[in-house]
Design goal:
Layout: E1 2-6, H1 11-22, E2 26-31, H2 41-46, E3 48-51, E4 69-72, H3 84-99, E5 106-112, H4 121-133, E6 139-145, E7 148-149, H5 154-165, E8 168-171, E9 178-179, E10 182-183, H6 184-193, E11 203-207, E12 213-214, H7 215-225, E13 231-234, H8 240-250, H9 255-265, H10 275-280, H11 287-299, E14 332-339, H12 343-351, H13 363-375, E15 396-397, E16 400-406, E17 411-416, E18 422-430, E19 435-444, H14 446-473
Parallel strand pairs: 1-2, 1-4, 2-3, 4-5, 5-6, 6-11, 7-10, 8-13
Antiparallel strand pairs: 9-12, 14-19, 15-16, 16-17, 17-18, 18-19
């Protein structure tokens, strides 16, 4: 079949794409920016990539006419704390218009469980999108999922951060809310099995794992699975806003996502039926099994996708293009060069920078800068990186964003997403003479920006100097 995959660069889309290709389907990926699609060249050659922004007015004749099925995996919850529901409604309506001129027979939408009368804004928006999509000229299959647990999922990473960093937690009342988590492996299985399945046409199904747990029990079971104990105290005085700040400072989540998650965590998310499990004859995994599977992927460095690579985890709204050209005028620079012996080994070191591997010099100073950034409302260092030795354009890299990762041209360009009075770029490039160029560029905003640059200049001397030497030195080890 010929399949349209929207949200192809998202957490779910990145997991679903290889499964569709393995099943010999022809896949058309709809993304805002072709360069942001974090796939290797072999996969890129196997798919058709089309740039569409579903929030913008519909552009006619963009999609192939001979599409059979489309996946709607677009969500805007992390983009805003106020109008994401309007954005999702616009996206769904435009999606319907794009499909009007195609032969699409089925649309598959991954929604959330919406069985309570009083829904959060996030869950209400998911239900509203269902209603909009149901007006399209196609058969709609809706899968309503509980909290998704898997390596790189926002829910799993938040639980992981809380448990690993806080042996004693003072928590708000929402940790006593019941929910029914589901393993990412089961979600992908359901998404592929309903493909072209006529008995699922124009139906909505709840999908969830077998365990109904409170968030407190999820935290406790995670600690047990990892071989340690945690203590959780619940207090009634933490307001949603305080709870959001608590999640933001302790975990790697953005404040916008934290605020919307807290709003949803007050609502029970429990499946009401298991019709799809019976129809497909499948048994879902337990929460403990989901945790174990997630860590197997993490330990083997096989994490396919992470919510942290989403643009909404940082300062960017939609595109990277306006930052790709490093400015030459009105900027302050720190330029360093060093002759290298082994080009390939040096590239390996550059491509491993950040995350658990660190920044090759003064890691404790980078950590202090990350803490200060988090306290100032920035992203901090907790995002890390998804892959230990692979970098794609658009990936998050601690408090940087990858603007360009071109190994063939021996160039890596990063843009700072930390809070500062200006804009900053960090570039690594190896020329044809095997000279490594490391350039930090800062475009200050007014006098405050210039004062900031000169105040940190002594630290730059040691950090950037030590960094380039160690990148070059380590290639001979």
């Amino acid at each position: 079949m010929k399949i349209l995959l929207t949200g192809a660069n998202g957490y779910i889309g990145m997991r679903l794409l290889p499964q569709l290709l393995a099943a010999k389907h022809e896949v058309v990926c709809a993304v805002r920016n072709k360069e942001r699609l974090s796939i290797d060249q072999e996969t890129r050659d196997a798919v058709e990539i089309i740039e569409i922004d579903f929030l913008e007015p519909v552009v006619p004749d963009v999609l192939p006419k001979d599409l059979d099925v489309a996946y709607f995996l677009i969500h805007s919850m992390s983009n805003s704390t106020t109008d994401f529901d309007e954005m999702e409604a616009i996206t769904a309506a435009n999606f319907n218009k794009y499909l009007e001129g195609t032969a699409v027979n089925q649309v598959i939408y991954l929604s959330g469980i919406v069985n309570e009368k009083n829904l959060s804004k996030h869950l209400w928006s998911r239900k509203n999108v269902e209603e909009i999509l149901s007006e399209g000229n196609f058969n709609l299959t809706v899968l309503r999922a509980g909290i998704i647990v898997g390596s790189g999922s926002s829910s799993f990473e938040i639980i992981r951060d809380l448990c690993e960093k806080l042996p004693l937690m003072i928590t708000p009342k929402w940790v006593l809310t019941k929910t029914q988590p589901i393993a990412i492996r089961d979600v992908i299985y359901f998404l592929t099995r309903v493909l072209g399945h006529s008995e699922t046409f124009n139906e909505s199904f709840d999908i969830a794992g077998p365990d109904v747990l409170t968030y407190k029990q999820m935290l406790q079971q995670y600690a047990q699975a990892r071989g340690f104990r945690n203590w959780i105290m619940t207090v009634p005085v933490m307001t949603p806003k305080l709870s959001s700040y608590w999640l933001y400072f302790v975990t790697s989540t953005s404040y916008k996502l934290a605020l919307n998650l807290v709003d949803s965590m007050k609502v029970e998310v429990i499946a009401k039926d298991n019709r799809l499990e019976e129809l497909l004859q499948v048994k879902t995994h337990t929460y403990r099994e989901a945790i174990d599977m997630a860590f197997k992927k993490i330990e083997q460095n096989l994490v396919v996708s992470s919510w942290k690579d989403s643009m909404v985890s940082g300062r960017f709204k939609k595109t990277l293009e306006r930052h790709i050209q490093v400015p030459k005028f009105g900027v302050l620079k720190d330029e360093k060069t060093i002759k290298i012996k082994d080009r390939e080994a040096t590239l390996n070191n550059i491509w491993k920078i950040g995350g658990t591997n660190g920044w090759y010099y003064g890691d404790w100073l980078w950590k202090i800068r990350g803490v200060l950034d988090k306290l100032n409302g920035g992203v901090g260092l907790r995002r890390g990186r998804t892959h230990p030795d692979k970098i794609f354009t658009g990936d998050s890299l601690d408090f940087w964003r990858v603007l360009l990762a071109d190994r063939d041209k021996s160039r890596l360009l990063l843009f700072a997403e930390m809070r500062m009075p200006g804009e900053a770029w960090l570039e690594f490039k190896i020329d044809k003479n095997n000279v490594l160029h490391q350039t930090a560029t800062f475009r200050p905003k007014g006098l405050k920006g210039r004062l900031y640059w000169y105040s940190v200049l002594p630290f730059h001397y040691f950090i950037f100097g030590g960094m380039i030497k160690n990148i070059a030195k380590k290639n001979s080890e």
